[in-house]
Amino acid sequence: MTGGAMALLAGLGSSRLAAFSAPAEAFPVAHTEAEWRKRLTPDQYAVLRNSATERPFSSPLLDEHRPGIFACAGCSLGVFSSETKFESGTGWPSFWAPLRDESVGTTRDISLGMVRTEVHCQGCGGHLGHIFDDGPEVTGLRYCINGVAMTFKPQAA
Ligand SMILES: [Zn+2]
After folding, report:
1. Domains of the chain as residue ranges with CATH
2. How confident is the model at residue 8 (pLDDT cuts 50, 70, 90)?
3. Active-site residue, selected from the candidate residues 75, 121, 124, 144
4. Is the C-alpha dihedral spanning 101, 141, 125, 61 positive or negative?
């Protein structure tokens, strides 16, 4: 692990605001762009590495209702739980909280003429989706996540 990655891990928890000013360059899991292209499908690469958005209602994970963990497709870090998944009607898998606060990071996204909060995996920096403030009462947040950026691991029976 590099010194930079160590520093990043040490700073987690207090780095929620720092993440806005310091573009996340150093993550525990790092690959060259060529390596990422080999490891990911073209759709996964477009979302995770280039912040693309999948077509709404295109993800099979939308209808995934078994108990389990949704993991980053880039590095397998658990990022969301079935326990916080809800039906938002938007066409993208939606959650009202991450699996753990330290599982995901956020940055300010001003693309497409909107100010949005981008959410990414803290394991590899892969883009997952965006956070909106129209979620259910529990937290009031809606993590709008690209299903293609995740894999589902059903809970062992
Ligand atoms: Zn990841």
Report:
1. 3-154 (2.170.150.20)
2. very low
3. 144
4. positive
150 CA from centroid of ligand 1 (Å):
9
CA of residue 58 to ligand 1 center, whole Å = 21
Tokens standing for residue 141 = 């947040």
Annotated catalytic residue 144: yes
CA distance 96 to 18: 22
Query: What is the CA(64)–ligand 1 centre distance, in A?
Result: 20
What 3-state DSSP class applies to 18? Answer: helix
CA 67, CA 80: separation in Å to the nearest integer?
11
> Beta strand 68-72 with 150-154: parallel, antiparallel or unpaired?
antiparallel
Distance 140 CA to ligand 1 centre (A): 25
List, for residues 104-131, the tens digit of each pLDDT value. Answer: 999 999 988 999 999 999 999 999 999 9
Q: Give pLDDT tens digits for 52-100.
A: 999 999 999 999 999 999 999 999 999 999 999 999 999 999 999 999 9
Q: What angle do CA 64, 69, 70 make, to 5 degrees?
A: 70
pTM: 0.83
